[in-house]
Amino acid sequence: MIDEDQAFLKQVAAALGDKPWDVSVELSGGAGLDRASTFNFQIVAVRDQLQDLPGHTLLRSAQAQQSQTLGLLYSLAGGRAERYEGGRATRSWPMTGPAELVRCLDELVAELSARREERRYMQAFRTEHGGFLKRFAELKARIDSLTG
Q1: 0.85 cut: is pTM over it?
Q2: Which of 44, 100, 135, 139 is deepest in the core (most CB within 10 A)?
Q3: CATH classification code of 6-120
């Protein structure tokens, strides 16, 4: 999380309760950029306006360095949180406080978990059926070369 408002961060910490997440906090955009360039985060949550950087600029930079990182840009004044992927907003939620921010983060964590499970299934399928997939690709290449 990157936010300058320490009182809000304490409220978020209380709202997290017993979530089994490792949460790292930076209090400025510059420190957040430095941290994102040296550590592989799964999710980066940033307040929309920091004193030294706009939040969306920070998210785009972090995602340019780590393309698999999901971003969450939140605004208490605007009452919304936006999911960022690939440097652009892809979804929006209403958000008025720490509980809603934790709910948004919870959805992103669930999404990442589903992605990991899907990758495990795909890897297991490839391992079990690798020979078939290779023969299929070779046959398809031969058919394409004969028709093309």
Answers
A1: no
A2: 44
A3: 3.40.50
